[in-house]
Specification:
By secondary structure, the chain is an alpha+beta fold. The protein has 8 helices and 17 strands. The chain has a 6-stranded mixed beta sheet, sandwiched between helices. Strands 1, 2, 5, 15 and 16 form a 5-stranded mixed beta sheet that branches. Strands 3-4 form a two-stranded antiparallel ribbon. A hairpin with a 4-residue loop joins strand 8 and strand 9. The protein starts with 5 loop residues before the first strand and ends in an 11-residue tail after the last strand.
């Protein structure tokens, strides 16, 4: 995950003046300047532009309060879009946004005691009972940041600001999704009871059918994964007479248009976006390529209709801090978001998972 090592680190919350909020005209002007948009329609735009440029000059000269106030503006621009995108973490189950002071806890119900059975006449009937278990879910801090050019800000040149803020939003969103995926893999693999799970070279149809059949008992299912994993389902939708292989015209048309079959034995088949990590490369068969952000080998079988045992959280919003990069000495602005994920204990069997080790080894899922 993203890691920014800073020295002389300052939490911006300790230096902010409290003069601005998300609805302040200066924040709208800052956002428009960063996006290269016209600011003329905003009230007192000229004064706001000069105020922002003045903050850039002060921050360039080491004024911590000015740097913190600029970070506040950045946070007000980045945070709404980022928290909206964080809701997409709920694709695996439920998502909840918590306030800063809230604890992250999970309450699950499990059956305990002797199961019900047929009794002899006049005998007592025993039943199992539901027992509630509450436990705390640990969180992690996802970080993103960039080197700030305060001189450019002081001159009103905001092009690098737009690139930097977009980078922060993208980095935190992608790293949060990666963390959730790794938590799912670890929880299901480590489960000791019944689980619908397979791991091996390639996606085997026999394993997929067994897992879909099991998870489907908890509700209609969806099959999700990166293109490299989920496209292997295409090979399972036809039929063979032992000599030739056939596939229906509608399925062929789906594959032709989208690269994927849309349904497999009643389950919706969907691709999970897996962008490249543009800062990391690898060599495959002498060809240099970027490394995907998330391991490519996971195929999920999820119950739909809100019955998934997976839950994700974000706590609070973005927090920011400023410091000097240890290796280069550049001034960095860092933004943090607290994220947590959990598969309900004792309910791991309600979600299916296959790992294609041809695409990603178990080591690639280490948290």
């Amino acid at each position: 995950m993203a890691n920014f090592e800073l020295n002389n680190i300052r939490k911006d919350a300790d230096y902010t003046s409290g003069k601005i909020n998300s609805r302040s005209p200066v924040v709208e002007v800052f956002s428009r300047m960063a996006k290269g948009m016209d600011v003329g329609t905003v009230k007192a735009a000229d004064q706001a532009v000069e105020y922002i440029k003045g903050l850039g000059t002060k921050a360039m000269n080491g004024d911590a309060t000015a740097a913190a106030e600029l970070n506040e503006m950045r946070r007000f621009v980045i945070e709404p879009l980022l928290l909206e995108e964080a809701k997409l973490l709920g694709i695996f189950g439920s998502y909840q946004a918590l306030a800063y002071g809230d604890s992250i806890e999970r309450e699950v119900s499990v059956l305990a005691g002797e199961k019900s059975r047929i009794q002899a006449p006049n005998g007592d009937v025993t039943f199992p009972s539901w027992v509630r278990d509450t436990y705390t879910v640990p969180s992690v801090t996802i970080s993103g940041g960039y080197a700030v050019d305060y001189r450019a800000v002081s001159l009103g040149d905001m092009q690098k600001e737009n690139v930097g803020m977009e980078q922060v939003r993208t980095d935190i969103r992608n790293q949060a999704a990666l963390y959730v995926v790794k938590k799912l893999y670890a929880a299901i693999k480590a489960a000791t009871g019944v689980k619908f799970w397979a791991e091996g070279a390639g996606i085997a149809q026999l394993s997929l059918d067994r897992i879909v059949n099991g998870v489907r008992r908890f509700g209609p299912t969806s099959i999700l994964g990166s293109y490299a994993a989920v496209s292997q389902v295409n090979a399972f939708v036809g039929w063979t007479n032992g000599v030739s292989f056939g596939i229906s015209d509608p399925a062929m048309e789906e594959i032709r248009k989208d690269g994927l079959v849309g349904m497999y034995k009643g389950s919706i088949v969907r691709e999970l976006a897996n962008p490249f990590n543009l800062t990391e490369t690898r060599v495959v068969s002498t060809i240099k390529e970027f490394v995907p952000l998330m391991p490519d080998g996971l195929l999920f079988v999820l119950p739909t209709g809100g019955k998934s045992p997976v839950m994700t959280w974000t706590r609070g919003g973005l927090t920011s801090m400023t410091g000097n990069d240890i290796s280069t000495g550049k001034v960095l602005t860092r933004f943090d978001l607290e994220v947590a994920a959990d598969v309900a204990k004792g309910h791991e069997h309600e979600i299916g998972l296959i790992n294609d080790t041809n695409l990603s080894s178990a080591a690639s899922y280490a948290i």
